């Protein structure tokens, strides 16, 4: 199996991302022309036939999402491109936005046609403000050339794309918080139901997809030879953009076939651990992901294999490599501090749980913790994962719980503490 592939990233370096003419020269917008000759349902079926799962973290069946969005009857609907990319260690969407903005726009227009939307919104994280001028210019060039606006390419389909920037809150990547933020409100997740597919941005039925998910659509529609499906494994076909960072010699963004092992990602693609140090752990899918131990390096990077290895998270595609110089408890404290800071505070398990776990980790770091503290920490973590209102609180303790299983020695009681 080849270790890297060019499918979603097939255009990187092949055209000038500032120029629509340059994109057209390499075949850009052929997929849109094809899509406009197809029924929206048939387009969603292409996603289903290829087993595409959304790339924003939740791995929701993308063909199913588009079919559900189509079924909602409403005079206006919208598509939202989630470019918030707030998950620590994740930066593959940035590369898609930077190197191939037109492929993303083409994917969004096809999404609009398939689900029956008349507006598309890109919600981009504030830290990517340097990419705004290029993206705004790309939208304008598409309007001038008739790929956006009224009666696109004479099809009778009218659709516009708008660019919004977030202000740097991690929780705004959650679909309903993102919709709140788009509307100009404070970005807090909404109670569900209603789900955003029924009532999302501006109270319209909304189909939210990640940058990578939408960027995958144009090459997939043109893939008549079945290249995408020939990659990966029978259970998990296709390719995935990943970002590898931390203590590796060669951090970066790679497109890999599903089924590659963690060992191949770390040692063959990212060059192994820097300066002759030893691998200690790998965090998968961002700060909300579990920790893998070196013994799990031969786990294959598929949804099923990762789940079987109790790692669950391909998530956002982040692979954070940590060597023996980092204290695991220190790492967990920073993670919990991050979630404490990013919690929107609406619900008690998340608002208080993150704070209490962080305080208990302070005791572990100081070596003053007791058996009771460890039990409490585990209890809070379990309550948070079941009783929080959104994915932030549900997954904020993934790293902690997996560390308790895989690195129990770092929680060992160091000395007897008198209980009064
Ligand atoms: C706290 C939180 C943060 C999230 N951040 C992002 C993000 O930055 N980008 C993203 O695409 N999805 C993010 N998601 C997932 C989105 O809610 C949603 O599932 C995704 O954008 C849907 O796109 P997909 O189906 O193409 O994966 C986040 C979810 C949660 C709970
Ligand atoms: S889980 Fe956390 S981030 Fe989500 S709604 Fe509750 S307090 Fe807000």
List the SSEs and their pairings:
Blueprint: H1 20-25, H2 30-36, H3 40-49, H4 62-71, E1 78-83, H5 92-99, H6 101-115, E2 119-124, H7 132-144, E3 160-165, H8 175-182, E4 206-210, H9 211-221, H10 227-230, E5 239-246, E6 252-257, H11 262-269, E7 279-284, E8 291-292, H12 303-308, E9 318-323, H13 328-342, H14 348-366, H15 371-387, H16 391-395, H17 398-406
Parallel strand pairs: 1-2, 1-4, 2-3, 5-9
Antiparallel strand pairs: 5-6, 7-8, 7-9
Helix pairs in contact: 2-6, 2-9, 3-4, 3-6, 6-9, 13-14, 14-15
The protein binds flavin mononucleotide and iron/sulfur cluster.
Residues 54-58, 60, 62, 65, 82, 84-87, 170-171, 173-175, 208-210, 213, 390-392 line the site of flavin mononucleotide.
Task: Walk me through what this model shows.
The structure is a single chain. Helix 3 (40-49) packs across helix 6 (101-115) and helix 13 packs antiparallel against helix 14 (348-366). The protein folds into three domains: 20-227, NADH-ubiquinone oxidoreductase 51kDa subunit (Rossmann fold); 231-323, Ubiquitin-like (UB roll) (Roll), CATH 3.10.20.600; 328-411, de novo design (two linked rop proteins) (Up-down Bundle), CATH 1.20.1440. The model has no long low-confidence stretch (mean pLDDT 96). A hairpin with a 6-residue loop joins strand 7 (279-284) and strand 8 (291-292). It has a five-stranded mixed sheet, sandwiched between helices. Strands 3-2-1-4 form a four-stranded parallel sheet, with helices on both faces. It has helices at 20-25, 30-36, 40-49, 62-71, 92-99, 101-115, 132-144, 175-182, 211-221, 227-230, 262-269, 303-308, 328-342, 348-366, 371-387, 391-395, 398-406; strands spanning 78-83, 119-124, 160-165, 206-210, 239-246, 252-257, 279-284, 291-292, 318-323. It is globular. The chain is α/β, with parallel strands linked by helices and 420 residues long. The chain contains 17 helices and nine strands. 51% of the residues are buried. The structure holds flavin mononucleotide and iron/sulfur cluster. Iron/sulfur cluster (SF4) is lined by residues 171, 189, 343-347, 350-351, 388-390, 392-393.
């Amino acid at each position: 199996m080849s270790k890297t592939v060019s499918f979603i990233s097939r255009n990187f370096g092949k055209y000038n991302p500032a120029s629509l003419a340059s994109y057209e020269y390499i075949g850009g917008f052929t997929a849109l022309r094809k899509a406009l000759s197809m029924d929206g349902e048939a387009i969603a079926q292409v996603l289903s036939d290829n087993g595409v799962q959304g790339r924003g973290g939740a791995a929701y069946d993308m063909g199913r999402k588009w079919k559900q969005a189509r079924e909602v009857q409403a005079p206006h609907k919208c598509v939202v491109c989630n470019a918030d990319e707030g998950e620590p260690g994740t930066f593959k969407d940035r590369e898609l936005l930077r190197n191939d903005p037109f492929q993303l726009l083409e994917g969004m227009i096809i999404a609009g046609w398939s689900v029956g939307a008349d507006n598309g919104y890109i919600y981009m994280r504030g830290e990517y403000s340097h990419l705004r001028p290029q993206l705004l210019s790309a939208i304008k060039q598409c309007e001038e050339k008739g790929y956006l606006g009224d009666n696109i390419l004479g099809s009778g389909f009218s659709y516009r794309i708008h660019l919004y920037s977030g202000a740097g809150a991690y929780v705004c990547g959650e679909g309903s918080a993102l919709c709140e933020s788009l509307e100009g409100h404070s970005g807090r997740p909404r109670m569900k139901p209603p789900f955003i597919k029924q009532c999302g941005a501006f109270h319209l039925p909304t189909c939210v997809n990640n940058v990578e998910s939408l960027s995958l659509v144009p090459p997939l529609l043109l893939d008549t030879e079945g290249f995408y499906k020939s990659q990966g494994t029978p259970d998990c076909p296709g390719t995935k953009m990943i970002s590898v960072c931390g203590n590796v010699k060669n951090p970066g963004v790679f497109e890999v076939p599903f089924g590659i092992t963690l060992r191949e990602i770390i040692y063959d693609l990212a060059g192994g651990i820097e300066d002759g140090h030893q691998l200690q752990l790998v965090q998968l899918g961002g700060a909300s992901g579990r920790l893998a131990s070196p013994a799990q390096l031969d786990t294959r990077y598929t949804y099923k294999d990762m789940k079987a290895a109790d790692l669950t998270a391909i998530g956002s595609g982040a692979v954070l490599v940590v060597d023996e110089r980092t204290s695991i408890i220190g790492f967990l404290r920073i993670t919990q501090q991050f979630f404490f800071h990013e919690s929107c505070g609406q619900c008690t398990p998340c608002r208080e749980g993150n704070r209490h776990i962080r305080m208990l980790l302070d005791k572990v770091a100081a070596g003053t913790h007791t058996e009771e503290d460890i039990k409490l920490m585990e209890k809070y973590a379990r309550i948070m994962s079941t009783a929080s209102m959104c994915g932030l609180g549900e997954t904020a303790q993934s790293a902690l719980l997996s560390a308790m299983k895989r690195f129990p020695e770092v929680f060992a009681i160091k000395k007897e503490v008198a209980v009064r």
